[in-house]
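Dear colleague,

Thank you for sharing your sequence with our group. We've completed the structure prediction you requested, and as agreed, I am returning the results in plain text so they can be pasted directly into your records. Please verify that the sequence below matches your submission; if there's any discrepancy, let me know and we will rerun it promptly.
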Amino acid sequence: MDPDAIWVIREISSKRFASVTELGENGDEKIIAKSGCVNFTADDHVTIISDGTETFRCTVESVRASLLMSGNGVRIEGYDDEGKKHKVIGIFTKMN
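Please find the predicted C-alpha cells below.
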C-alpha cells in the first residue's frame, strides 16, 4: 500500500471532477466521465462515481495517485479485481 497515494485520495475525496479520462495502453485518452468524485469503499477499493455510475475501480493495495503539477487535477492508477491496470486523470471543477 502506498501511503502517499492514500493521502492524495483522502485530500481530494471532497473535490468534484469536471471530467475523467482513461489513458490507454498505446497512450490514447478516452473520456469516461463528464463529472464525478473519488472515494474509498468499504470493500477496500478506490472508485470514481459519475452520475451514480462507477466509472473507475481499483484495489486500495494497488492504487497510485498524484496531483497534477498544474494543481487542477489528479492522476490515479491501479489494478481492478481481474488484474487489469487502469490509469485515469481527473480534472477538478473550478468550484473546488
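Summary note from our side: Residues 3-92 form a domain with the PH-domain like fold (CATH 2.30.29.30).

Kind regards,
the structure core
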